[in-house]
Amino acid sequence: xxxxxxxxxxxxxxxxxxxxxxxxxxxxxxxxxxxxxxxxxxxxxxxxxxx
Length: 51
Description:
Blueprint: H1 3-10, H2 19-30
């Protein structure tokens, strides 16, 4: 199965995430805006956890 086919089946958004989308999450976690977040999971998976 091709990688794109896998994402269409196992991803609520029906596409593979872009590097920019992952980078946005990383930048947020590295920023002062996330300074009060501890022991949490931020899933950047396009809704893959709901399947």
